[in-house]
Amino acid sequence: LYHSWSALIPTLVKPQVQHTAQTHGQLLGWINKVISACATLKCAEKQTTLICLFFDCKSSITHKS
Asked: Which residues on adjacent β-strands are paired with residue 34?
């Protein structure tokens, strides 16, 4: 396991640095507050709330199915 991580981590550095350079100082795009898989009003209601932790803020999404 150690050798797998030792090989993987160096390949992630350049993409992370590029992403940070491109997005530094910019707000992350907001996502819809409610996601629904139901196309009609006849679906059984089940609701799950997900907490999303971003670098610069916290948000939540409600999924209804």
From this structure: 62
SS3 content of the chain, % helix, strand, coil (to 5): 35, 25, 40
pLDDT of residue 35: 57
Cβ(61)–Cβ(33) below 8 Å: yes
Compute and round to an integer the Cα radius of gyration of the chain. 18
43: tokens are 């679906």
Per-residue pLDDT tens digits for 20-62:
888 888 776 666 555 566 666 676 677 777 777 777 777 777 7
